[in-house]
Amino acid sequence: MVILLFGYEPFLEFSENPSMIIAQRLNGQKIKNHSIVSKILPVDYSKVEKEITESIKLFHPDLVVGLGVAPGRSKITPEKIAINYKYSEAADNSGSKPNGELIDQTQSNGIFSTLPVETIVHTLSDSGIPSSLSLSAGGYLCNYAMFIIVRESLKSGVRGGFIHMPLHDNFVAKHPDMNYPSMDIKMIQDAIELSIKTSLPA
Question: Is the pTM of this model over 0.85?
Answer without folding.
Answer: yes
